[in-house]
Amino acid sequence: MLKRIERPRELSGIPMGKASFPSPFVSGLEYASPARGTWNIVHTGMLIPEAHQIFVCAASCLRGVVLTAAELGMAHRFSTVEVRENNLLDGDMEELVIEGVGDIIEKLPKRPPVVLVYTSCVHHFAGCDLDMIYGQLRQRFPDIDFADCYMNPIMRKSGLTPDQLMRSRLYMPLKPRPIRRGSAAIIGHDLPLDADSDLILLLKENGLKIHEITACKTYEDYQEMAESEFYISRYPSAVAGGDMLAERLGGTHVYVPFSFDYDEIQQGLTRLAQIMGIPAPDFSGKREACDSALQETLALIGDTPIAIDYTYCPRPLGLAKLLLDAGFNVDRVYLDTITGEEKQAFEYLKEKHPDLQLFPTVHAAMRFHGAREQTNYLAIGQKAAHFTNTNHFVNVVEGGGMLGYQAIFKTLELMREAFREEKDMRRQIQIKGMGCGGCV
Amino acid sequence: MKQTSRIISTYSADVFGVCSALFELGGMTVMHDASGCNSTYTTHDEPRWYDMDSMVYISGLSEMEAIMGDDEKLIGDICAAAEELHPKFIAVAGTPIPAMTGFDFQAVAELIQLRTGIPAFGFATTGMNTYVHGASMALEAVARRFADRDAVKTAEPSANILGLTPLDFSVNGSDISIVRFLEESGYRVLSRWAMGSSLEELARAGSAHVNLVVSSTGLGAAKALRELFGTPYVVGVPMGDEFSALIRGALQTAAATGENQFPACCLHGGDTVIIGEGVTSLSLASALELSTGRSVRVICPTETDEVLLREKDAKLQFEEEILEALSTARQVIADPLFKPICPGGVRFVELPTESFSGRIYREEIPDLVSDFQKFVSEVL
To answer: Which residues of B touch A120 (CB under 8 A)?
Structure first.
């Protein structure tokens, strides 16, 4: 019944040597690959225990978020107010939000301690008085904390991106409380940090009390994060929110970047230790152990072609650099833009590995780029797996729970596993919000 | 009405209806949107996305482009992509922000057509209506633009199927079952709008003697083909022996008289309630009434032609009013995502549809054309 239509000419990649920073590709119409593992604002909002989410948008915008919640089996924590054409014409957008949100709250079987109200692009364009809206809601429901959240992708090129905004709004309900010395909150990413990540080991070895939103079971657990002396982020789009949080609650925000570069890993963790007033971690033998793990993995994988994409972690070029320098056959990286954090890796690869191919993920011609037949690529990331059509892939998004040297060890371990074992790529990459508990 | 849904889902929107209707025709459909619409459509509303290389894109509209009225960015991007990908046609469909800024879809489509030489459509969808509105608009536009005006009626009885999209029929073989019904009824099927047929096959639709409209998404095209070729249409999905016989008779009557036919059964009362798209739900209601003697009423939350609804049926959009209408029901047949508002003690029969729950229950969506009796056994 289903048939492919005739394909146009396949898109070629751009050799690293000819790529420009930060946008190697001309922007234009955008394609959406079937890889869906990265989180969206609904997944992230669900991290606040007992929170209820209310989206106020047009049907086309509601469709994706309402089904995200349904696929998570969390429809009971999710409601909508639908903006219709008459609301645009009548200028009653503020009233619609206030009355709609109020109506939903009154109908909920149990009063939630916190409600995340998401307004959208149309509110921004209509010049809605959002301060008045939230003021009225807080007055009407003094027992509920309201967080102003946003689904306004039209603003993605103006100021904070929706992703940055969501990672900041996630902590807005935290209320100031006395700071507890020796406590730290790890903030701004969706998945729990691995127990053996360098950061968790450092904090535990020095007896710090660790708060992490992914470990909170109740809203009170969540509120306890506000006692933190330190707020630690490791994801680039969490930095803005971390700064805001520390300024509002009085702690200190430290950004420890996710990296595959030995020097940067050590600098990040050493700087954190200095700020926290604890001994710097002992890095002795780590570089040698990483080198050894790289060679062990290379011996297994050999010259198998490797493809990496940006959904795997915030440093796809950094990972390519690490692997290429160790002798792996990384032949392509899928990304649409290059972040400022990757500029050094970009310049390095441009000079040392000019034949590495860069491919976009959203360019219109990528619709026809996916390999028809299965290939023997080892893919690192879901989009790379889809485009190279391989079942041998590392299925991780957003850097998983990795940080520090452990990110290198774990990546290599997952590569070995992916080389040896096949996964059901088609099924696994289409699950939304990997690690959030989706049922589809 | 506060336009709220405490817990139920949202029907697929008009802009996705346009994409779904045009998906298999070899064109390029562009949603003029900032971000999000493409992943929503391709994840939840388009089961063919992984297997068919259809060209569906978003424009990536930004705040500054919207404020400054920079339509040239969109036009240039579309022309560049078209030059590379050679679509058979280009369609541009709207979302909320273009609706707010008064984007002129018709004018932009004309400009694109002028520059590329490729037929182009502009669909002023707003993202604020259901998929029925968008899909109907798109199929009607295809009829008006591509149907061969010189088409000659076939010598043998023939028909087109109008209003076939996965949003109402999934990809479970329902489309093939409808074809089989028509063929067994003596009709050659010239085209299926728009699953399983090419644009060229659709262009020959004027040669058919009668059209079968199987969802409200086909009504726009049915009216256009009636206007262009005088082809009468019959509204209904062949489910169950009795209702299928009614449709068979209606097809013969329509072809013989040239009059449109709306076969439907209507028993008094109705403590069984079906919630769903108009034509498919009315067909199921009629089929159930005829085969079981049980009275069934329909709640239609999507756009539909008012003349199709019977006195006891209702068009209701929001959770609050649907909830109220269910208060007297003894049994509800609806998508599982309606279950949370089904009153306690009322029997709920799950009938998933992609248009409401997307891909969640895809494997459980029945082909009611071929498996009606099995479904009846669950209802009874």
So the answer is: 96
Q: Chain A contact for B358, CB < 8 A?
A: yes
| Amino acid code (one letter) for B294 | R
Q: Tell me whether residues A64 and B35 touch, CB distance under 8 A.
A: no
Which amino acid makes up residue A257? P
Helix (H) or strand (E) holding A172: none
**B4: nearest CA partner in chain A:** A81
Rounded to a whole number of angstroms, the distance from the CA of B369 to the nearest CA of chain A is: 17
Q: Which residues partner with B347 through β-bridges?
A: B331
pLDDT tens series, chain A, 440 aa: 344 444 555 667 999 999 999 999 999 999 999 999 999 999 999 999 999 999 999 999 999 999 999 999 999 999 999 999 999 888 899 999 999 999 999 999 999 999 999 999 999 888 999 999 999 999 999 999 999 999 988 877 777 888 888 999 999 999 999 999 999 999 998 999 999 999 999 999 999 999 999 999 999 999 999 999 999 999 999 999 999 999 999 999 999 999 999 999 999 999 999 999 999 999 999 999 999 999 999 999 999 999 999 999 999 999 999 999 999 999 999 999 999 999 999 999 999 999 999 999 999 999 998 878 889 999 999 999 999 999 999 999 999 999 999 999 999 999 999 999 999 999 999 999 998 875 45
DSSP structure string for B230-265? ---EEE----SHHHHHHHHHHHHHHHHH---B----
How many Å apart are CA B339 and CA B355, to the nearest integer?
A: 16
Phi, psi (5° rounding) for residue A144? -115, 135
Spatial contact of B215 and B282, defined as CB atoms under 8 Å apart: no
Which amino acid type is present at position A393?
A: F
**Strand duo B4-5 + B55-58: pairing:** unpaired
Report DSSP letters for A335-369, one per residue: -S---GGGHHHHHHHHHH-TT-EEE-SSBGGGGGT
Residues of chain B with pLDDT under 70: none
| Structural tokens at position B326 | 């269910």
Residue B276 · residue B334 · CB < 8 Å: yes
For residues B370 and B127, what is the distance between their CA atoms, to the nearest angstrom?
A: 34
Output the DSSP codes for A23-50. Answer: --S---SB---S---S--HHHHHTTSTT
Say which DSSP state A224 is in: G
Token code pair at residue B327: 């208060």
End-to-end CA distance of chain B: 35
List Cβ neighbours of B26 (8 Å cut-off, separation of 6 or more).
A5, B87, B88, B89, B198, B199
**Interface test mutation site (partner A, options B53, B169, B176, B200, max chain A beta carbons within 10 A):** B53
**Continuous segment of H or E residues that includes residue A97:** helix A93-107
Chain A hits for B54, Cβ within 8 Å: 5, 367
* Residue in the block written with tokens 């409601």: A79
Q: Do residues A390 and A427 lie in contact, with contact meaning Cβ atoms separated by under 8 Å?
A: no
Cβ of B4 within 8 Å of Cβ of A31? The answer is no
Q: Which of A44, A186, A169, A187 is nearest to A119 (CA)?
A: A169
| H or E element at residue B359 | none
Q: Are strands A306-309 and A378-380 parallel, antiparallel or unpaired?
A: parallel
Query: Which chain B residues are Cβ-neighbours of A100 within 8 angstroms?
Result: 2-4
The angle formed by the CA atoms of residues B236, B148 and B116, to the nearest 5 degrees, is 110
Report residue A37 CA to chain centroid gap: 10
Q: Do B97 and A154 touch (CB under 8 A)?
A: yes
What does DSSP say about strands B331-334 and B314-315: parallel, antiparallel, or unpaired?
A: unpaired
Given a contact cutoff of 8 angstroms between Cβ atoms, the answer to whether B147 and B110 are in contact is no
Q: How many CA atoms lie within 13 A of A264 on its CB side?
A: 19
**Burial bucket for residue A353 (CB in 10 Å: 0-12, 13-18, 19+):** middle
User: By the CB < 8 Å criterion, does A7 face chain B?
Assistant: yes
